[in-house]
Amino acid sequence: MTRLIVGPFNRVEGDLEVRIDCADGSVQNAEVVSPLYRGFERILLGKPPLDALVYAPRICGICSVSQSVAAARALASAIGVSVPRNGELAINLVHATENVADHLTHFYLFFMPDFAREIYRSEPWYEDIRERFTATRGTAVETVLPARAQFMHIMGILAGKWPHTLSIQPGGSTRAAAPGEAARLAVILKAFRRFLERQLFGDQLERVAALENEEALVSWAGERAPEHSDFRRFLNLSAALDLARLGPSSGNYLSYGGYHLEDTSLFGHGTWRNGQANAFDPGDVAEDLVSSWYKTDGPEPPASGTTEPDAEKTSAYSWCKAPRLGGEIMETGALARQLINGHPLVRDLVSRHGGSVHTRVVARVLEIALVVMAMERWVAALEPGGHFITHGDMPSRAEGIGLTEAARGSLGHWISIENGQISNYQIIAPTTWNFSPRDKDGVAGPLEQALIGAPVRKGETDPVSVQHIVRSFDPCLVCTVH
Amino acid sequence: MSMQRIDARPPVRLFWLQSGGCGGCSLSALGAENPDLVTTMEAANIEVLWHPSLSEASGREVVSLMERLESGEEPLDILCLEGSVMCGPNGSGKFHILSGTGRPMMDWIRALAEKARYVVAVGSCAAFGGITAAGDNHVEAVGLSYEGRKPGGLLGGDFLSSGGLPVINIAGCPIHPGWLCETLHQIAAGTYNETDVDEWARPLSYTMHLVHHGCARNEFYEYKASAERLCDQGCMMENLGCKGTQARADCNMRAWNGAGSCLDGGYPCINCTAPEFEEPGHDFLRTPKVAGIPVGLPTDMPKAWFVALASLSKAATPARLKENATAEMLTVPPSDKGKTRS
Ligand code: SF4
Ligand code: SF4
To answer: Which sign does the torsion angle of CA B194, B257, A209, A89 carry?
Structure first.
């Protein structure tokens, strides 16, 4: 058995170390380490409750709006205020802009550049992929960066700035859109749709969104040469490298659901276990701390969770806690979301191959199409002139839960307020679920399990298969360790 | 990042580290426009040796590059740090061990800063400790050469890099991409000197201005027609904690994300470019007052004058402003005398 320590891991958000034991050309065992601790849960203690909206987004620069949404929902449940329809639309648009930009950044700048590595030089698709996706020099970068930046003008208009916007409040949005601005939003979306249809998909969003099973996906991909679009490029190399078998999921998935509008939501919430959809009860969430550098061992339900760092704890190897749902590990992200929401293509892929690098990436790219189409509907539904916010008073004592979906999965904030101040605040980020360390029963987290069996080529010190698997989760370590 | 030699000068070699931050400054930088970030670096003749979110190199390759920079075997022109320096617990730096190295990030930062010709703190975390230093700061987060408002930090308040400059503090939470791009461009061109920074070693190119300059709500300010609640259109200084009249940045003169600013987004400026913005000593979204008068008046205005002018201008507030100030959207348009809508 050889032990490899892989890190620093680049092109993930934050710092990450992966320790793997290899034998016979594959990974036998893995430990995932979050090596940074920032302590946001402690920062928030004693603060005025609404100030959480200043601190919480700064947990993470890549999903700061998701953090705002979770904090605002937790505060809204404490206040007992509800958001007017315009406010919901505005929040959904701002949140969706971040999530879509995130998926796009992940695909183009974080995930695909690994296939432009030397190790793939002999593959028939290599030259094209190298030219297109080489980190910072590929031809994709020069079109993606401007397209992304222009798309983010939605943030400029509806949220003032990004990251770390304050426009999302418990009762709605601080920014009411005027009629002319609604028109500008529609134009920005049109330009972005054009970029997606020309570069990423090479087809209409509607056609991609309507693919209903693996056969349909394969035949759609085969309509044109792989070089015709970036998604086809991925599908082609994914088939060649058999990414559908790489980085298998455990079979347990969780989604809190997202993009709320009048008592319903674009994506539903629930769990998926052993091929079955089930309801989700937030009361079943608890964080195990046995392998984490904190004083207690847990498990602790987040509403009464603690954050007492202990860098010397010998049983521990990560700053990441280990959330469990009814004692079980859960994978969260676009794959979980689309599976639970019942997208036929994702359900079909998972029923055939299970979750994997291939399925995670397909679900994420598919979601870009689904969400952009929803954004167009939301812009059309805005009613400039109507209310965007409802005001309410913060009680001096209350509890609240804010659940939402960030691009990379389920995000929850739990707040307790006493004497008008925050008396406890706990955050469980998507990557905390996915990259959790072992719990009291020794059960490894989703990524730790997904790494088992990954091929390691002779002489590799930073195995490329490990890089693919890790990045297929689109991890965010700064969120994880907040 | 790509290196394209645009002239005969050797490329300016930049290395980027992240520690106790949120990555938001990098993500904000990715939004650079006209041109994009990669083109901007090329134009500045900057070769990005490594950036954690953008570069190809991973693991061993990066560590060995860092070792070569540390030993002086390869030169380092610009070191950028994003995020605070994590000194805890008890000065050990164990709250951030750089993965794959077993060594505290704090040590790596110090070692590379000693070799770099210029050291740049990207964002308020790296400059002053920033948001990570809020609350009881049990993580012992500090900036490179400041700990809050106190000179010191990791490198000491009198630190000068081998290029003869203090740590250049591109403060902001996050930075505006323009602040970063312009500053790096000037440093790379060799034209940057101590007259280009303010008293906190922040680039004067953006701290020469106040956030108040160019704010779309200036007319409301003039008449003290104030917003009462978030989403109101009036001036947010009197009731909602806005620090635009004191905050040093050009946020209302150069758009964020092509179109906005905090104020345009309907929320007050929290002075995120300033040291200790993270602990204002009051609710962020409420203006502390003594006897009804805001405590934080415009920086260089005598209080008595402010009070006199404010009561005068309040008395003269046009009905249009009074009404719009507490509306969610501008409702009463300006009108041309004598011309009515037919
Ligand atoms: S200064 Fe703000 S945006 Fe930049 S790393 Fe720190 S918290 Fe994030
Ligand atoms: S307006 Fe104020 S809080 Fe907003 S980015 Fe500018 S300086 Fe920071």
So the answer is: positive
pLDDT of chain B, 342 residues: tens digit per residue: 444 545 568 999 999 999 999 999 999 999 999 999 999 999 999 999 999 989 988 889 999 999 999 999 999 999 999 999 999 999 999 999 999 999 999 999 999 999 999 999 999 999 999 999 999 999 999 999 999 999 999 999 999 999 999 999 999 999 999 999 999 999 999 999 999 999 999 999 999 999 999 999 999 999 999 999 999 999 999 999 999 999 999 999 999 999 999 999 999 999 999 999 999 999 999 999 888 888 877 767 788 888 888 888 888 999 999 999 999 999 999 988 878 776
What is the per-residue pLDDT for B307? 84
Whole-number pLDDT of residue B1: 47
pLDDT < 70 regions, chain A: none
Distance CA A381, CA A425 (A): 35
- Residue B113 is predicted with a pLDDT of 98
Residue from A317, A321, A480 nearest B102 by CA: A317
Ligand 2 centroid to residue B269 C-alpha, Å = 5
How much is the pLDDT for B7?
58
Among B6, B3, B28, B54, residue whose Cα is nearest residue B178: B28
CA dihedral sign of residues A405, A406, A412, A416: negative
Q: Which of A7, A45, A136 sits opposite B55 (nearest CB)?
A: A136
What is the enclosing helix (H) or strand (E) of B289? strand B289-290
The distance of Cα B316 from the centroid of its chain, to the nearest Å, equals 37
- What separation in Å is there between the alpha carbon of A349 and the centre of ligand 1? 39
Tokens for B3, please give them: 């290196």
Q: What is the C-alpha separation between A3 and A434, in angstroms, rounded?
A: 22
- Whose tokens are 């104020």? That residue is B263
The answer to whether the Cβ–Cβ distance between B257 and A161 falls below 8 Å is yes
Of the CA atoms within 13 Å of residue A118, those in its CB half-sphere come to 5
Nearest Cα of chain A lies from the Cα of B28 at a distance, in angstroms, of 7
What CA–CA distances, in Å, run from A288 to A32, A37, A43, A305, A454?
A: 15, 17, 22, 10, 27
Angle (CA) B211 A183 B216, round 5°: 20
Distance, in Å, from the CA atom of B104 to the CA atom of B97, rounded to the nearest integer, reads: 4
Provide the token pair at B324. 């719009």
Nearest to B160 by CA among B140, B143, B149, B144: B144
A322: Cα separation from own chain's centroid: 17
Q: Which long-range contacts (CB under 8 A, 24 or more apart) does A184-190 make?
A: A184/A153, A184/A157, A184/B259, A185/A93, A185/A154, A185/A157, A185/A158, A185/A379, A185/A382, A186/A376, A186/A379, A186/A380, A188/A150, A188/A151, A188/A153, A188/A154, A188/A157, A189/A154, A189/A372, A189/A375, A189/A376, A189/A379
Q: Are B86 and B106 in contact (CB under 8 A)?
A: yes
- Measure the CA–CA gap between B134 and B340, rounded to whole angstroms: 55
| Strand A322-325 to A270-273 pairing | unpaired
Tell which phi-psi region holds residue A176, choosing left (phi > 0), alpha (psi between -120 and 50) or beta.
Answer: beta
Q: Hey, is A230 helix, strand or coil?
A: helix
pTM: 0.97
Minimal Cβ distance to B59: which of A8, A33, A36: A8
Cβ of A162 within 8 Å of Cβ of B330? The answer is no
Chain B partners of A68 at a C-beta cutoff of 8 Å?
A: none
Asked if A23 contacts A479 with a C-beta cutoff of 8 angstroms, the reply is no
Helix (H, G, I), strand (E, B) or coil at B81: strand
Residue B277 has, within 13 A of its CA and on its CB side, a CA count of 28
Interface check A395 vs B, CB under 8 A: no
Q: Is B183 in contact with B205 (CB distance < 8 Å)? A: yes
Cα gap B23→A157, rounded to integer Å: 23
Q: Record the tokens describing residue A453, joined without a space.
A: 């069996």
